[in-house]
Amino acid sequence: MNGYFTSAAGFMIESVFSLYIFAVLLRFMLQVARADFYNPVSQFLVKITNPPLKPLRRIIPGLWGIDLASVFLLLVLTMLKIFLLGIATGNLLAIPGLVVLSISDLLGAVLNIYFVSILAQVILSWVGPGTYNPLTSILYAINEPVMAPARRLLPPLSGIDLSPIIVFLGIGLLKILLVSPLRDVGMSLT
To answer: Is 63 helix (H, G, I), strand (E, B) or coil?
Structure first.
């Protein structure tokens, strides 16, 4: 019976924290990409992430256009999620391992967001090319900083943009060569 409660607690912790971390991470990525602030999706993200970010911004200033308060909040939320998951499963982690695992988790989340958003943008380009909606605008804003260099490497052939393939390969390599080793280092520090 105890295993069921542990699984349920882990599921709830993972779900709630991951959803909010996803929202803060998207807001951060949209700020970095200088996406349209008045887009309804942007406005939604601002409304749900402002309560913890407003007070943090008074303490932690931005640097070179990077919202350090968002970065700090992301790191703290991810560390708290991993710590609570450790408590739920009975695996307490040391602080250095917790920090490295949190960084690994956040990098993996960024790569997953890019993968899913590029895939969604590709599918939307097939289903409704040239149509505008707030989601397509956000997808374009997030993906263009990654897609533009890939398009320079592999320009469209006969009107077909194959640059997402290069980005997907890059995401896969980064997960293997960066995220996994960081996760292993974090686990070794526990």
So the answer is: strand
The pLDDT tens digits of the residues spanning 79-123 come to 999 898 888 777 777 888 889 999 999 999 999 999 999 998 888
Q: Given CA atoms 19, 23, 28, 30 in this order, what sign does their dihedral have? A: positive
Model-level pTM?
A: 0.84
Q: Which tokens sit at 6? A: 């542990």
Separation between Cα atoms, residue 189 and residue 135, nearest integer Å:
40
Q: How far is CA 167 from CA 35, 74, 104, 109, 119, in A?
A: 20, 24, 19, 15, 10
- 185's enclosing H/E stretch is helix 180-188
